[in-house]
Amino acid sequence: MNAIVTGASSGIGRATAVALAGAGHALALGYRGDPAGARRTAELAGGGIPFALDLADPAGAAAAVERAADLLAGVDVLVNCAGVNRRSPALAETLADWQRILTVDLTGPFACAQAAARRMVAAGRGGRIVNVTSVHEFTPIPGGAAYCAAKGGLGELTKVLALELAPHGITVNAVSPGETATPMNGVPEGADAAGLHRPAIPAGRPGRAAEVAAAIAHLAAPEAAYTTGITLTVDGGLSLTSAVANQETTRRSSR
User: Fold this and answer.
1) From the candidates 8, 77, 147, 235, which is the catalytic residue?
2) Quick check: 177 and 135 in contact, CB under 8 A?
3) Which structural domains are found in the chain, ordered by start?
4) Where is 217: in which H helix or E strand?
5) Helix (H, G, I), strand (E, B) or coil at 56
6) pTM higher than 0.85 for the full model?
7) Distance between CA atoms of 83 and 17, rounded to whole angstroms?
8) pLDDT tens for residues 83-121?
9) Rounded-to-integer distance, Cα 105 and Cα 176, Å
10) How far is CA 165 from CA 25, 115, 144, 189, in A?
11) Which of 9, 136, 188, 246 is paired with 46 by a 20 to 30 Å CA distance?
12) In this structure, how many other beta carbons lie within 10 angstroms of the beta carbon of residue 122?
């Protein structure tokens, strides 16, 4: 089994590569600006082919996926993990920055999924596509107009692709992480999430990249052949708390 993982130079992408290697996959490891990080991931995974990929250029990203598939002699699994996270008030957002987020977090992953799916269909042996979204696929956050729109769009794209590709034996699912202790979120590589107190999260801490990767690896496994078109949320219960602040405010005001 051959797997392509984008955003593999750190964080969830790195942990996913390690998990898939443990399941016996040969790996191609996509990175944008950190080739040393991708090489380190290959070391941790016991192998893997780093390759450059920039989602800001969707056509170029699709071509990079094609080249990676050639290097692996085929692709059975694609994990769309690469992306950017940015906040800006909607009234202050520029069209250029809006477009950049949608290109990197939605159009680029679509182009990669399309390229991988075409190879899977041509090979005729099925496959797995897993898109990494966010709890903000469902839950809005102030300053997240572009980011939430992109992640929500990627969640809906997941469902459409699942419908269209099911006849070819290809499942398409998403994993939506909550806050995860990764460099993208300002947590140094190797720091344990258990040491980060998050009282607003029912689990009391952010997630570990390996915990998100375990969900991705499950959806990429042969045993997940009957699961398609879903988003699996891995957030320590964060998305359960939307009414908690209002409940606490109501209690205080009634005293």
Assistant:
1) 147
2) yes
3) 2-253 (3.40.50.720)
4) helix 209-219
5) coil
6) yes
7) 16
8) 999 899 999 999 999 999 999 999 999 999 999 999 999
9) 13
10) 22, 13, 31, 36
11) 188
12) 10
